[in-house]
Amino acid sequence: MSASGQTNSDPWTKLQHELDRWTASGETATFWWRDDDAVEETPQLHALDALSKEMKAPVSVAIIPAQLHASLPQFLQKRDNFIALQHGYSHRSYAAKGAKKIELGGERSTEEIQDELRTGRLQLLAALGEQFLPVLVPPWNRIESRIYYELVNAGFTGLSTMWARDSAYLLSGLLQVNTHLDPVNWRRDRGFIGEVSAIEQILRHLSARRLAGGDIAEPSGILTHHLSQNDEVWAFCRTLFEMLDRHPATRWLNAREIWAI
Ligand SMILES: [Zn+2]
User: Fold this and answer.
1) How far is Cα 225 from Cα 164, in angstroms, rounded to an integer?
2) pLDDT tens figures, 31-87
3) Which of 58, 121, 159, 201 is deepest in the core (most CB within 10 A)?
4) What is the distance, to the nearest Å, from the Cα of residue 164 to the centroid of all Cα atoms in its chain?
């Protein structure tokens, strides 16, 4: 971003410098894009599609199986820039009173949760065929560890939550790849968190990957919510994607490449 009057502390300049360091060390900064809460064809889904095509950025939509409307698979199947993942089952919270919202845990038996996840997986597979990957995106990015084994039993090979992963494999056969930038301010007004905070999130992941001992293999994930985000968030995503597109160190990965399915 070269708008006049910006200083070295400008967040876009910082991102530019971080990516330049990737170029200097001969590494490729891989990115991926996850969009949550898809259920049906809407004008916002068309906006997501348009941005993805314009930026040549593949997008993985996390679909809520229990709310799936027939218009969604019809829309997705005509577009190879989309891959479908599973977003829990119903996106309902079963948290104990006063606890943080959680679908995959809380006050339910492990068995009940596994049954629903399996039902959801089969539903999405039937609706989307090979466009669907058995990768689970927990609602609110929250899942209790007692569910990990059940994911493998229910046929999942991937998991995606939020922030840098501790390890690539939570269990043998269950590859975790998370997202690292969420530009929506959920706690306040669901507006934009602002350029400084948003770029800080992605910079934190990029620099940790690059440094010695860092997990360079986990692509940096950008999370969007096409149904909830405002114009400011859309505009930020466009500016960010344009910058990534221009920089020689970057490359988009699609979920199929990430999970090698
Ligand atoms: Zn969600």
Assistant:
1) 20
2) 999 999 999 999 999 999 999 999 999 999 999 999 999 999 999 999 999 999 999
3) 159
4) 12
In this prediction, residue 2 has a pLDDT band, given cuts at 50, 70 and 90, of: very low
**Tokens representing residue 249 in the block:** 């160190």
User: Separation of 140 CA from ligand 1 center, angstroms?
Assistant: 6
Q: How far is the CA of 137 from the centre of ligand 1 (A)?
A: 8
Confidence label for 121 from pLDDT (cuts 50, 70 and 90)? very high
**Distance (Å) from CA 199 to ligand 1 centroid:** 22
Report how far ligand 1's centroid is from the alpha carbon of 64 (Å): 8
Could you give the residue ranges of the DSSP H alpha helices within the chain?
A: 11-24, 43-54, 71-77, 110-128, 148-153, 195-210, 231-246, 255-259
3-state secondary structure of 92: coil
Please give the distance, rounded to the nearest whole angstrom, from the Cα atom of residue 186 to the centre of ligand 1.
Answer: 12
Q: Which residues are close to ligand 1, an ion, with C-beta < 5 A?
A: 36-37, 139
Distance 78 CA to ligand 1 centre (A): 24
CA of 17 to the centre of ligand 1 (A): 33
pLDDT tens per residue, range 223-234: 999 999 999 999
